[in-house]
Amino acid sequence: MTPPFPGSWHWLEAAGLQLVIDALRRQGHRVVGPQVADGAIVLRDLVSVADLPTGWLDEQDGGSYRLRYDPNAGTFDHVVGPHSLKNFLFPARETVASFARDGGAWTQAPPSVAEPPLAVLGVRGCDLAALAVQDRVFLGGGYVDEAYKARRERLFLVAVNCRRAAATCFCHSMGCGPTAGPGFDVALTEIGGRFACEVGSDRGAAVLASAIAAGAVVAACTDGEIDAARAVPRDLAARMHARQAAADGPSPRSLDTHGIRDLLMRNLEHPRWDEVASRCLSCTNCTLVCPTCFCASVQEVADLSGDQVDRERHWASCFSLDHARMHGQSVRSSTASRYRQWLTHKFATWIDQFDTSGCTGCGRCITWCPVGIDVTEEIAAIRATDGAAAPDAERGTP
Amino acid sequence: MIMPAHPPSAATTDPWRAHAARIVSIRDETPGVQTYELEFEEASVRTGYSFAAGQFNMLYLPGIGEAAISVSSDPDHRGTIAHTVRAVGNVTDALTRLAVRDHLFIRGPFGTPWPVAAAGGRDIVIVAGGLGLASQRAAIEQLARRKDGGRTIVVHGAKRPAGLLYASDYARWRAAGIDVHTVVDEGDVAWHGRVGLVTHLLDDLPLDPSATTILCCGPDAMMVGVAEAAMPRGVSPEQVYLSLERNMSCAVAHCGLCQFGPHFVCRDGPVLRYDRIAGLMRVPQL
User: The pTM is what?
Assistant: First the structure.
């Protein structure tokens, strides 16, 4: 049997996938994968393939997320839950610097790097795309976030090619899926209860070789089988482009991205911002579940003696009044201006800043919005009334 | 992609690494405003640190927080740097409780500079509202030594005469050939100068529009007023530079708080060319 190499394809049974997880753990990885918890499929520490959400489907729509058990569903027929790679690479709370006072003098402690490398199972095309977007923010902008870099360099990614889309999915519109890649170490395509496994990197090949050495039965895929596996996400993409309803629910969303940057930037005073603001609760959910949102603020956290201070970075949201506070006042005091900031940043100014959209079409912001505000609908509404002037000619709104 | 005009100095490869600095002197400026002269503790930082006029540092007090403050001293003066600070918040209030020989921490320098090096014989008009002059003083000190034939004009406005910043420097600047004009919103018995807005003073200034570059720093509304007043005089929007102020946590385009349209004010600013932001400045609550 030829050993795995980048570009090789192999059949993996559930038992083989367990040996891949074991191999990653033997190498010292913390392995994380999708699991059912608290009524959702979330990313948690994973030890056993038995903990994967086999048979569980997520029905998602604006403001709605429900799990349904279907004995015919596979291990990865759910799509994305509230968690993303962001939760692990750019944690919601992280100490960026520490200072200690000794005899009156403060010194900065060197940064600690005591984390095991991370391996994530079940990463989708939209997740890989979001990772590439965050790479540009934290690694590519002239300044490097050292903690992110350390995690990123050691990150092991087991991707999954989607064969089902939720009603909130529009990765096909954003060019981010449903085919996973590039950027994975190993990618799985579920077919008939087993996984066609594509090796994407030397590290992926080494882990698979380690699983084989531990007894994994890994047959090479034939050319025909590789073609069949490649067709799985391609067929889903075709159905998404045709906006075909899935057997189990409504058709996925889609977004016309043509000229989207200029469309939004020439409509900064469109009346739709006020209209959406009448529904938006400014709750920040969309920014928290968004896999690319990177805003953060730093807080001083001191121990009781006051001699030990951590500078803690917390996720921030452009929907909070504190986000753009100056001289005791918020620059964006209206909900309309804050919604506009989120949407125009994500779909327009992000392109100026990072040469890419900030949206991957994962649909999380639609699902987890408590009132079901849908970015695809908001952008379509602005496109349909491009150039509409705010009813209030006086500045002050939005 | 927009790349930083100035890469981080060698002293700050980890953007969160701060360097201890000692307060060498504290000078009272206007009411509530002090200038702190600072010296880095480590010799390697002291010699390795350099900044360009218009850039800022993050001043940090452990347990209290950070504030973004322009460097106000002469960039060509080595050894110490100066920051002029108004006590308006948590960090700047705490600064006023420090004394000479106390320490604070500095990250920086960050941001884009005033286009002083590229002046190339052009007339430079520096328009400052209140404490805005603090971000321009470094440029003025460099322009005081210019030998390229261009004129340098400082137009400084304050609410009241006591609010005119760096008044003790004006004689030296004038001796170096700089035209210094002052104007206040509200005079007092001792005030014999002009009363009104900086834009009015600018209107009366003889300008050669094709050879004029304007560097403006002050409240947003004042800067828009200055830029709009300069347009009918024939000054190109590409020759008007504004220094913006926004809330920020990181100074390295990671925290996202300072965004102004596509610009990270910390990295792509604070000094931004008017033609690139004119449309955005007209949109309320952007």
Answer: 0.94
